[in-house]
Amino acid sequence: MTTINVALGGSIQAAIDAAAWGDTVSVAAGTYVNQFLTIRKSLTLQAAGGQVLLTETAQPPDGKAAITEGAAGLSVTIAGFSISGVTVPDNNGAAIRYEGGDLTLRDVFLHHNQEGLLGGADHAGHITIDHSEIAFNGDGSGFTHGLYVGDIAGFTLTNSYVHDTAEGHEVKSRAASNTITGNRIFDNNSTASYTVDLPNGGAANISGNVIQQGANTHNPATIAYGEEGVTHAGVATLTGNTVVNDRPGGVLLSGTSSAGVGLVDGSVFGLTADQLGNVTASGITFLTARPVLDLAPISFLPSPDPTPTPTPPKHGHGGGKGHGKPQVSVSDFGVHATRLEASVTVSGARLDLATPLPGDLWSPIGGHW
Questions:
Q1: Overall pTM surpassing 0.70 (yes/no)
Q2: Contact 249, 213 (CB under 8 A)
Q3: How far is CA 259 from the centre of its chain?
Q4: Which of 19, 67, 290, 307 has the highest Cβ tally under 10 A?
Q5: Domains in the chain, start-ordered, CATH in brackets?
Q6: Residues 198-257: pLDDT tens digits?
Q7: More confident residue, 262 or 356
Q8: Spatial contact of 57 and 23, defined as CB atoms under 8 Å apart
């Protein structure tokens, strides 16, 4: 497996296209304006030396997203990217469009898009989001969300901050199994609807979160479970959460009364026992003072240096010819009109390459999902 380094200002898509399955594309920190990416192979796309800011002022040529990724059987990891400004005519412009396989997002900041993440269906697929911030997404129609996960096998959201969605839900998932733990999910002063919406039921572990329903929401329920019909079997459990309701007349949970939802060992503010909704409750602490909410943005983790030092070649005894494998590094990707340029170092010798680009590299991906 190879790491391909993209220098600031270089073409990220050219590096993705050049990568083999399982490779890592390491992108130097900085701002990249109107670079739209498509990933149809298993790989890791990571920032190096700080965050990579994908700032979109034009609409994506595929009519979908800043990053359109995935297909059944793929495994893609995206780390250290901040994505903003995505719009398309059908109002489903997403920072990231998931189209199958296993997707892991880590240290990402998806903000001020029509959709944060928009996910399609893959009954064998998984989406995992950790240590990320999803903020100020939604077009105000109520049909766009901070996170929208389609009908997949499993969805996991951990250690993240999701907040301030316009009209839509902060988190909506149709996955068969959902793990939502250790997060802050806040409406704050936005008009977001449900903070967590699991419209088709399924197994769910919602634990250790701080969840706030804002005063400006147009929907009285904080959490919804199975309200569009339970198509996935399983039991939902809410444990160890702190729920703050700032909406007069709010309720904790709405949805089908036949759904198995248990609420234990949690704390609530702004709700009475009569406002819990369709839950089997025990061990609930009703707070009399509103908790102070942590509104701090996510502090993103350090990322690798963009220009790692190559490992020196190994040599035999007595200064003989090296017996180790050649050390290969690829750097300085760049696109120049009709050719792809790269620098390759093999055991200390540098080669500068220029390769004609195939014509279809420039062809936009048509159609809508």
A1: yes
A2: no
A3: 28
A4: 67
A5: 3-287 (2.160.20.10)
A6: 999 999 999 999 999 999 999 999 999 999 999 998 989 999 999 999 999 999 999 865
A7: 262
A8: no
